[in-house]
Design a protein that fits this description.
Largest sheet: 5 strands, mixed
Radius of gyration: 25 Å
Number of strands: 13
Number of helices: 14
Strand order of the largest sheet: 5-6-1-7-8
Helix content: 25-40%
Distance between the termini: 54 Å
Oligomer: single chain
Length: 426
């Protein structure tokens, strides 16, 4: 058996741990640069605020009632680490899946003790970290995701729900679950399944697995086995390497200065290069785009993008930056106040499957090996000694592209200067 432990409104819960005044209030956490709502409390959902709602479009009545905070990822990441430490007290098999979700394996544990153990786990996480969690227990990851959803939605389960492979209750749950609600089923796959008469999870479970594989993929076939209660999916199946990488961000303030756009482009390109190397890929082209703020009436509007192909697939930040600089130079125009800039790495290929050229020489191999060693050293320094310990170019103070986080709460657990202060009366 395996359990999925998922934090309830995780970002909001992290904020409430250090500010109990937020309990019972409508609370929302905003994305980078305070652009839109990315996490909502139940109270904020009840006010009709949708996930992803732009901050500037929220009705004044909602803004008066709600507490809207900038995202505080340093705090959320540290709280996630603490939750996983607690999970480790209950099983040696803990697999973090995202910042607010982890799978906990209970292989070898007595079956009759699992539900009480999960309830104790839930209580302990809440008591030691302050984060409320829901626990879904099932024989497979796919069923555990469904069980977790029930645990969080249905008060009768009191935060812990168990789904076994067989039984009438499981059948009812699967029949009421649209196939596009299943973990890992993309919208287009769901539309194709619907055309073939498979609209809910139970119908997919009853489908011929070989037929499903022949028309979709081996991952979809494994989904069928998972719904039948046979473990077939590992986390790597659900995290396929991306075919493109995008890093972009709205500026904290509008700017028409070219050097500020170049600084933003350099920052985004460096981050994209780090992600590219982390997933073991090479990029074959770099795209840079810029745009003004389309919501500012009366402002001259401009948006453009340019793609520069690399001479050979590369994950070297220096080569990515050189290409991105040429792309930005091609699209930059004076006289506009820019609001956003982004870098996208295109046509990614695996390092191991790089297409060799007939014109390559031994010197090219040696140069590529030096590049890999240099980038590995750079990544290690930044990983072990802190982000941007080694960087390309020095940023100026008060750059326009810096994050706007006027509503961010203190980083209580990771920054000495922002520790919580307690006043006592003598």
């Amino acid at each position: 058996m395996i359990a999925l432990v998922d934090g309830n409104s995780f970002y909001v819960s992290c904020e409430r741990v250090f500010d109990p005044r937020l309990e019972g209030r409508a609370v929302g956490v905003l994305s980078n640069n305070d652009g839109c709502v990315v996490a909502r409390s139940h109270e904020l959902k009840a006010l009709g605020v949708a996930m992803g709602a732009p901050l500037h479009l929220l009705p004044p009545a909602v803004r008066r009632q709600a507490v809207l905070l900038s995202s505080n990822y340093a705090l959320y990441g540290d709280m996630s680490r603490r939750v996983n430490q607690v999970l480790g007290e209950f099983s040696p098999d803990v697999e973090p899946y995202s910042i607010d979700e982890s799978f906990v394996g209970f292989s070898g544990f007595p079956d009759g003790e699992l539900e009480p153990r999960c309830r104790e786990l839930r209580d302990t996480v809440g008591r030691w970290t302050g984060i409320p969690v829901g626990v879904g227990l099932a024989p497979t990851r796919t069923l555990a995701k469904l069980a977790n959803r029930l645990a969080k939605r249905e008060p009768a389960f009191e935060g812990v729900c168990r789904l076994d492979a067989a039984g009438e209750a499981t059948r009812r749950v699967l029949e009421s679950c649209p196939v596009d609600d299943l973990w890992g089923v993309a919208r287009r796959s769901a539309e194709r399944l619907a055309l073939m008469g498979i609209e809910n999870a139970w119908q997919l479970r009853e489908a011929d697995s070989r037929w499903v594989r022949s028309r979709f993929s081996v991952v979809m076939e494994r989904m069928v086995w998972e719904l039948r209660g046979r473990p077939a999916i590992v986390l790597d199946d659900m995290s396929e390497p991306r075919r493109r990488l995008l890093v972009s961000r709205s500026f904290g303030r509008l700017t028409g200065e070219r050097h500020e756009l170049e600084a933003a482009m350099r920052q985004h390109c460096t981050r994209a290069g780090e992600k590219l190397r982390r997933q073991g890929s090479l990029a074959q082209a770099v795209q840079v785009f810029v745009r003004t703020n389309p919501f500012l009436a009366g402002e001259p509007q401009y948006r453009n993008a340019a793609v520069v192909a690399l001479p050979a697939p590369s994950a070297d930040s220096r080569e990515l930056l050189a290409a991105a600089s040429r792309a930005l130079a091609a699209i930059y125009l004076e006289g506009y106040r820019y609001q956003k800039c982004g870098v996208m790495l295109l046509d990614l290929v695996d390092v191991e499957r790089r297409q060799a050229s007939l014109l390559e020489t031994p010197e090219d191999d040696a140069r590529r090996a030096r590049s890999q060693r240099l980038m590995a050293t750079l990544d290690r320094l930044n990983r072990e000694m802190g982000r941007d310990t080694v960087r390309f170019g020095l940023p100026r103070r008060d750059n326009a592209w810096k994050l706007r986080c006027e509503r961010r709460t203190p980083r209580y657990t990771t920054c000495w200067d922002e520790l919580m202060r307690v006043k006592t009366e003598r």
